[in-house]
Amino acid sequence: MAARSAVGRARRAGDRKKLAEAGRAVDDAKVALGERGPVWWDDGAPDHNRRMARNTPYSAWYAALAGAP
Question: Is residue 16 part of a domain?
Answer without folding.
Answer: yes
